[in-house]
Amino acid sequence: MGDIFVSYGRSTESQAHQVAEALRASGYNVWRDDELPAHRSYGDVIEERLRSAKAVVVVWCASSDHLRQLGA
Fold this sequence. Notes:
Layout: E1 4-8, H1 13-25, E2 30-31, H2 42-52, E3 55-59, H3 65-69
Parallel strand pairs: 1-2, 1-3
């Protein structure tokens, strides 16, 4: 299981990759959804990985739906 779960939208995939690689270079075990096993349900794997993570890094951008919902 990963120490750090990196959450991102497709529009920030490049930045999320850079963040994950920097964390790995610093010695952390990082998990992103590009490592989903083909034989498991997406939702089940995400929930499992989130529950086991020690930290979550969220990579957002100004056009993120989450930010628009918050009125940003």
